[in-house]
Amino acid sequence: MSKKTLVEISVNNDVKLTAQFEDNATTRDLISRMPFTVDMDNLYSREMCHRYGHGGLPTDNAKDKGYQVGDISYWPPMGSLVFLYKQNGEVFEQQPIGHIDNDVSFFSKFNSAQVTFRVRA
């Protein structure tokens, strides 16, 4: 069984979410940066996205796969950190990061959001 790290996510200094991060190269890099805040934009009416740019984060297990609502993934081609809040059945290259345990459907109401990540003690 792989080690998971609990991460607190705050959206617009208001909504608090809890995520379980996998143990891989991408998450270790993100965790080493915590706490940090990024701006995320609503894309394709299914995901919130922050673009680090191609090569912005390391990967060690990126592959084409589907997703579940609540998944947090990294899309290497554009260096995109994404929260997937609505399902459309797409399969795409991604490095799994983790999963948000809370309902994430509220993201559909935002054009953008300021999101803060911190390791939960």
Automatic annotation (TrEMBL):
The Cyclophilin-like domain covers 13-117
Q: Which InterPro entries match?
A: Cyclophilin-like, Cyclophilin-like_dom_sf
Q: Which Pfam families has this protein been placed in?
A: Cyclophil_like2
Looking up Gene3D superfamilies in the UniProt record yields:
2.40.100.20
List the protein's name.
Cyclophilin-like domain-containing protein
Q: Which organism is it from?
A: Levilactobacillus suantsaii
